[in-house]
Amino acid sequence: MVGALALTACSGGGGSGSDSSATPSGTSSAGATATSGSDGSTASSDALQGSWITTSGGKIVALVVTGKQAGLFETGGAVCSGTAGEEAGMRMIHLTCTDGSKNRVTGMVDSVSKSGMKVTWSGKSGEEIYTRAEGGKLPTGLPTASLGQ
Fold first, then answer.
1. pLDDT on residue 2
2. CA angle, 126 as apex, 120 and 131 as ends, to 5°?
């Protein structure tokens, strides 16, 4: 819930003009089965929807995807917002971070399942494997011993 509030608070002012792509148009080539009234990318990005958790450098990284919006939060670090969806047949995530961090600016989703997602970021973070967080709980098996130090 906090992630959704932070995502909402940070989503304004992007100025990228991407809102125009959210309106239905006759140019979509995807055979969309979505009934939400959006273009075909929503149906193909449904697998990305949800909360995803990983650890990096002893910090927890949470990636939240809701619709075409994405937010990323790193403990003690970056707060980022942007978009997620399909582009040219690839699932992509584009983020802008409030602290200017470039570690996770553009990510290509290499694979996604109902329990995990592998993203390769163009920045310093490189390849990361995320676990889906169900019901607002952290997934089991995360290395958290070093977080309190």
1. 43
2. 60
